């Protein structure tokens, strides 16, 4: 059975949704290029509607927020980024957004809207503009962050919402080096991902830069970015900026939105190619000693040889001297599962950029890596694979007690029918079980307020099985704890490829 193919965006995981984030999930990229014949059974079939409990209200979102989400609609892949002003009483009083979709590009479009928030932090928002309207389902992590999905019968997407810091709305505040992690599609609709770094001065001029990219499996590494003609600008009003980046393959233009002095969200505004993602500050220079200890990681994208979506995750330990001494990895390659593989590897890091390898019984895989304030941004450089993501430093000791209390959750990926996105809130008892409420967009079939139940086991390295039971059925995951407040996961079923994250409320 061939899964529908999709480009994963790691707003939720480099951010992390991971995305995917994604985002987050960062807080994840998201293009369905083929329709298949089977959907996950039972989405929306649950008649139970649990009563939300908690202390969230409309006042839980007050201020100016940067948002971004990517997914699919009737015209194919699209990406959106913007800034909105929430008044704490359910009104989005103002804002702007930039949209790149098959129906055309819309830049700096004014928006208004409304939102409601349930007691458990789950909510719904509408964004209205002259370009198009969006309905979003979200779950609040805190007053400064929410995980979101596009929640419409004709479209689905995943992304994040982050409180902005106006003190960072200037080229002076953003001066220095940022590493970017972007994914999407090229002009032919093929999977495209790129990663790199840019250094700017106080006036927004680009003084140095390097880029790595994989376009439909074709790899270009360590390409210099031309400083002549490359620059950024930033509005002091809403943190919206523009970036022009001159690369070896052409000039790229972006709109971006400042979260703070260490983080921006980007969406490409060129016709044809659509890239979106995040950039995070680098505090280099770096050496091998900069990467020491245990890390959790997730990458996702497309296997252009198998013709389907790809996701992998795991935990690794680096010794600070160029060796990955131990670890374990899980792979879902278009529904072919390889689980709990022992891995070792090597890495080499200089200045702002490095390379590393992971070796297991599945083979040896190569990556480029850029350390940032939000973890190590990574891009796979093996021919035929287009995947990107991030690795985040783990801290503390791990057991079932590492997941305890109330959490926000989101995930994004594809089933055998197309795009699947979700947000949820749950309570974990610290001994291996959880209950909550979930909102699901399964290829445009919407299920709101359904029962969520699950089990988990967290091993000493932070990895373990993670099972969710919803109207979708039973989903079997592998979870990778970062600390007591956050974990990443991937699905290990042969009819779904997805990644996600949980964050403590």
Please provide a written account of the structure:
- The protein has 505 residues and is mostly beta strands.
- It folds into 4 domains: 58-164, Beta Barrel (Lipocalin), CATH 2.40.128.120; 168-282, Beta Barrel (Lipocalin), CATH 2.40.128; 288-393, Lipocalin; 400-504, Quinohemoprotein amine dehydrogenase alpha subunit, domain 2 (Lipocalin, Beta Barrel).
- It is built from 1 helix and 35 strands.
- It has a 9-stranded antiparallel β-sheet with strand order 13-12-11-10-18-17-16-15-14, with no helix packed on it. An 8-stranded antiparallel barrel has the order 1-2-3-5-6-7-8-9.
- The longest helix has 4 residues, at 171-174.
- The two termini are 38 Å apart.
Q: Which CATH C-level class of the largest domain is it? A: Mainly Beta
How far do the termini sit from each other? Answer: 38 Å
CATH superfamily of the largest domain: Quinohemoprotein amine dehydrogenase alpha subunit, domain 2
The structural class is mainly beta
The fraction of residues assigned to DSSP E strands is over 45%
The overall pLDDT, averaged over residues, is 91
**Helix content, binned percent:** under 10%
The CATH architecture of the largest domain can be given as Beta Barrel
Write the layout of secondary structure elements.
Blueprint (H helix, E strand, L loop, with lengths): L61 E12 L2 E12 L3 E11 L2 E7 L1 E6 L4 E7 L5 E9 L2 E8 L2 E9 L7 H4 L1 E10 L5 E10 L5 E10 L2 E7 L1 E9 L5 E8 L2 E11 L2 E6 L5 E9 L9 E12 L4 E12 L3 E11 L2 E7 L1 E7 L2 E8 L2 E10 L2 E6 L4 E9 L10 E12 L3 E11 L3 E10 L2 E12 L6 E8 L2 E11 L2 E6 L4 E9 L1
Antiparallel strand pairs: 1-2, 1-9, 2-3, 3-4, 3-5, 5-6, 6-7, 7-8, 8-9, 10-11, 10-18, 11-12, 12-13, 14-15, 15-16, 16-17, 17-18, 19-20, 19-27, 20-21, 21-22, 21-23, 23-24, 24-25, 25-26, 26-27, 28-29, 28-35, 29-30, 30-31, 31-32, 32-33, 33-34, 34-35
């Amino acid at each position: 059975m061939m899964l529908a193919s999709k480009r994963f965006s790691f707003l939720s995981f480099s951010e992390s949704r991971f995305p995917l984030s994604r985002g987050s999930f960062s807080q994840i990229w998201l293009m369905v290029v083929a329709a298949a014949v089977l959907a996950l059974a039972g989405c929306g079939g649950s008649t139970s509607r649990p009563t939300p409990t908690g202390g969230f209200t409309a006042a839980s979102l007050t201020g100016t927020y940067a948002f971004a989400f990517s997914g699919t609609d009737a015209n194919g892949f699209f990406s959106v980024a913007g800034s909105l002003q929430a008044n704490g009483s359910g009104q989005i009083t103002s804002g702007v957004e930039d949209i790149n979709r098959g129906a055309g590009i819309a830049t700096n479009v004014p928006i208004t809207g409304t939102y409601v928030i349930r007691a458990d932090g789950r909510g719904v928002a509408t964004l209205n503009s002259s370009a198009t309207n969006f309905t979003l389902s979200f779950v609040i992590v805190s007053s400064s962050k929410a995980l979101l999905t596009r929640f419409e019968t004709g479209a689905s997407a995943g992304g994040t919402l982050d409180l902005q810091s106006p003190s960072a709305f200037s080229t002076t505040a953003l001066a220095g080096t940022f590493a970017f992690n972007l994914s999407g599609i090229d002009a032919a609709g093929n999977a495209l991902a790129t990663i790199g770094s840019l250094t700017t001065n106080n006036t927004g001029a680009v003084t140095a830069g390097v880029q790595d990219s994989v376009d439909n499996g074709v790899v270009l590494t360590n390409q210099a970015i031309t400083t002549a003609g490359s620059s950024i600008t930033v509005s002091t009003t809403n943190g919206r900026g523009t970036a022009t980046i001159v690369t070896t393959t052409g000039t790229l233009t972006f709109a971006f939105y400042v979260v703070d002095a260490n983080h921006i969200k980007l969406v490409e505004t060129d016709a044809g190619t659509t890239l979106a993602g995040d950039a995070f500050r680098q505090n280099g220079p770096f050496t091998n000693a900069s990467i020491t200890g245990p890390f959790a990681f997730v990458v996702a994208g497309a296997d252009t040889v198998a013709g389907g979506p790809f996701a992998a995750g795991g935990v690794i330990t680096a010794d600070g001297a160029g060796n990955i001494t131990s670890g374990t990895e899980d792979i879902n390659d278009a529904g072919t599962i390889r689980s709990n593989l022992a891995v070792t590897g090597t890495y080499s890091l200089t200045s702002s950029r490095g390379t590393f390898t992971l070796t297991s019984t599945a083979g040896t895989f190569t990556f480029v890596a850029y350390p940032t304030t939000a973890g190590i941004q990574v891009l796979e450089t093996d021919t035929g694979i287009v995947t990107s993501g991030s690795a985040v430093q783990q801290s503390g000791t791990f057991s079932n007690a590492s997941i305890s209390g109330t959490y926000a959750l989101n995930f994004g990926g594809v089933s055998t029918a197309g795009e699947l996105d979700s947000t949820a809130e749950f309570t974990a008892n610290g001994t291996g079980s959880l209950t909550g409420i979930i909102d699901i967009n399964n290829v445009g079939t919407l299920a709101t307020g359904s029962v969520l139940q699950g089990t988990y086991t967290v091993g000493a390295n932070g990895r373990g099985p993670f099972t969710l039971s919803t109207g979708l059925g039973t989903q079997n995951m592998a979870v990778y704890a970062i600390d007591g407040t956050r974990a990443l996961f991937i699905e290990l079923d042969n009819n779904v490829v997805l990644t996600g994250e949980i964050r403590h409320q």
